[in-house]
Write a structure and sequence with these properties.
Layout (H helix, E strand, L loop, with lengths): L1 H12 L1 E9 L2 E8 L4 E5 L3 E6 L2 E6 L3 E10 L2 E15 L2 E13 L2 H5 L4
Antiparallel strand pairs: 1-2, 2-3, 3-4, 4-5, 6-7, 7-8
């Protein structure tokens, strides 16, 4: 998950807009920037990144990824990414290594006054 999160952070850092849609096969995150739109398909065991002809994919290996867009005045300002590893035993599901990452559009340096 670390490599996927690093790439996602880079993409969100250069983003102008974010759109998140849920569907039967998972979530689709669309990142719009000055270049080509970037699409992340977040599925049960895999994350696929598409940017024009380029495609990357990562296996989540029992991990779960959930995204939520933070908005202010109707405009997206950040992406919250929640990751965890789930284990099942005797029909009980337990989450371990739960982490929440907040990625700001355009990065903090562009939003901070005086920088």
């Amino acid at each position: 998950l670390c490599h996927m999160l690093k790439r996602l952070r880079q993409d969100v850092d250069g983003a102008r807009s974010l759109t998140l849609r849920g569907g039967p096969e998972g979530e689709v995150l669309l990142i719009e920037s000055d270049g080509e739109p970037i699409r992340y398909e977040i599925r049960e065991q895999r994350v696929i990144r598409r940017a024009g002809p380029e495609q990357s994919s990562w296996t989540t290996s029992g991990g779960t990824i959930k995204c939520r867009i933070w908005a202010q005045a109707g405009e997206p300002i950040a992406l919250e990414v929640r990751t965890c590893v789930s284990t099942s035993r005797d029909a009980l599901r337990k989450e371990k290594l739960v982490r929440t990452h907040v990625l700001f559009l355009g990065g903090l340096r562009r939003r901070s006054p005086g920088r």
